[in-house]
Amino acid sequence: MRNLLQGQYPLSAAFFRFTGLEDGLGDLVLLRQASIAMQRLAEEKTGKMGLTPEKLAVLWMCKNSKRPLTPAQIARVAFRENQTVAGLLNRMEKEGFLKRTPKRKGQPYTAISMTGKGEDSLERGLSSFKELIDLLPRFSESTLAELDAVLRKATQTMHTELIETHLSPSW
Hints:
Blueprint: H1 2-5, H2 13-18, H3 25-47, H4 53-64, H5 71-78, H6 82-94, E1 98-101, E2 111-114, H7 116-135, H8 141-164
Antiparallel strand pairs: 1-2
Helix pairs in contact: 3-7, 4-7, 5-6
């Protein structure tokens, strides 16, 4: 990955303001750049364990849910189409990370639960994500609270827009 990025530097918000991209567009670009960079690092770290950030997210959801999840619930939380999640769950079940309990009388949905291998992989994957957290700058509690509020509001607003524009009918 270093060779791929060698000599490339991220553009700053000042560059975008300088070129006339104002009114928050430079900030949006920076937020997107940070997100993409974190995704690439997460893919590199989890890939060494046979995981992806998406698989790790599913395992984390399963661990932190009070009851078995359904594929539709996972799709909604992960902001993914049902078909995309179905394919991911198929691969994860074949790899032994989770088990699906098919629909049956009195239970009108497929339940997803984590296996022992999934639990072990989740713990190792979370350790690699903690390494990513260590790369982030340390913020004060008040800055973290403000950032948390902004990102939650942005996520809620974007999700509402997706629903209203019917960009994701399966959500």
